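tRNA (adenine(58)-N(1))-methyltransferase non-catalytic subunit TRM6 structure dump, as promised
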Amino acid sequence: MAQNEDDDYEYRIKEGDHIVLKRGDVYKAVQIQRKKKVIFEKQWILLDNVVGHLYGTTFEIASGGTLQPKEDKETESSTDVKVAGTDNRNIVDDGKSQKLTRDDIETMKEQGLKNEEIIQQLIDNSSTFNNKTGYAQDKYIKKKKKKYENTVTVLKPTCRIIATMYHGREPGKIW
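structure tokens r here:
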């Protein structure tokens, strides 16, 4: 049974709506206003393109802070690890294991490389990655994904989401 566009009107984002932006475990409540930039997680975002989309849609942050709906991809990760070490005790964190510099990474971002591609470059240029255990490799990948993640999910504010948002900021204040 096909759903009529009028049926899901209340589930679509409209100008003037209050929404909650979510990235990982971080939430921020904002109001949709045309041509208004919002700072979220140290990044400027323009919310104009979310109007008309369904709540719960995940957007990629494109250049200039514009949001574009993210296409669903079943093949989640090209960062699947095939070689893993058995022990981490010989790995020394001397800051020299990563061959890429911050400028190299910024250049890759400016060239428009996707986050997965940047993470794969970080893995390829790490001299200690293959020596780490599978758990340590997964932890490293998760940390890098969080750092270079470039997506935001737009949620409809509910009591539970608002409570989670405030609890994440200052749990002591909402007792």
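The chain has four helices and seven strands.
lmk if u need the other ones
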